[in-house]
Specification:
The chain contains 2 helices and no strands. With 96 residues, it is mainly α. Helix 1 packs across helix 2. The chain is elongated and about 75 Å long. The chain starts with a helix and ends in a 13-residue tail after the last helix.
Length: 96
């Protein structure tokens, strides 16, 4: 009887540990997705904002030509910035 009770307790502990491990893995994956999303938004944030604003204008029945033009301008600027060769000397130059 005591051995069966001990066996049951060990199975419960193992199940709790495995459930905790699964939750930890889930939290790590969610954190990685959040970090990647922040990076993408930092790189393409202006373009994304203008695209979403253009869609909102179209959905509300208004003309979104200005927002589409702003999105293109932002995308062109992002392309130019991506093509620029960077070194550690000019790190943070865009933040001034």
């Amino acid at each position: 009887m005591a051995q069966r009770l001990t066996s049951q307790l060990l199975r419960n502990k193992t199940a709790l540990r495995q459930r905790g491990q699964g939750m930890s893995e889930y939290i790590i994956i969610v954190a990685l997705i959040a970090v990647v999303s922040i990076g993408v938004f930092a790189a393409f944030g202006s373009t994304i904002r203008h695209q979403v604003a253009g869609m909102a204008q179209e959905l509300s029945g208004n003309d979104s030509k200005a927002e589409i033009a702003n999105a293109k301008t932002s995308a062109d600027l992002a392309t130019k910035n991506a093509a620029t060769q960077r070194t550690m000397k000019d790190y943070g130059a865009d933040n001034r």
